[in-house]
Design brief:
Strands 2-1-3-4-5 form a 5-stranded parallel β-sheet, sandwiched between helices. The chain has about 130 residues and is of the alpha/beta class. The chain contains 4 helices and 5 strands. The protein has helices at about 10-25, 35-45, 60-70, 105-120; strands at about 5-10, 30, 50-55, 80-85, 100. About 35% of the residues lie in helices and about 20% in strands.
């Protein structure tokens, strides 16, 4: 089973870029453009335990998402923050992996892989194997 990842960003081109990179890396991706939709996706998909979120978004921020998800859900959810801004919005960025924008896809995959491994899951290798 492929590791399920939620990507949250109000910039659709970033969502598409991250979604494509993670799909190619063996992850099953869900996308949201705002905190409200992200929380609904997390509620409807309890197997999502990894979230990549932009920090600066309209209405509610990635910091709001982290705080609300941690308060609402009993399961452990790991968060990776991406941002083109140096604002922290009150978050202790030492507690979360941080990816600067514009994104480096190779670095994104490394950070996601480390986060997935730290919670005991790795994506399936999409290259397949030949055990015959």
């Amino acid at each position: 089973m492929r590791r399920k990842v939620l990507i949250v960003d109000d910039e659709k081109d970033i969502l598409e870029e991250v979604n494509e990179a993670l799909n190619e890396g063996g992850y099953e991706c869900f996308s949201a453009t705002n905190v409200k939709d992200a929380l609904a996706i997390l509620k409807d998909n309890p197997k999502i335990t990894l979230v990549v979120t932009d920090l600066i978004m309209a209405v509610k921020t990635g910091a709001d998402l982290i705080k609300e998800a941690q308060a609402e859900f009993e399961r452990d959810i790991s968060f990776i923050i991406m941002s083109g801004s140096v604002e922290t919005l009150g978050l202790d960025l030492d507690k979360f992996p941080f990816l600067p924008k514009p994104l480096d896809v190779d670095e994104l995959l490394k950070v996601i892989g480390r986060a997935a491994a730290s919670i005991g899951d790795k994506p399936n290798d999409s290259r397949g194997t030949n055990d015959e």
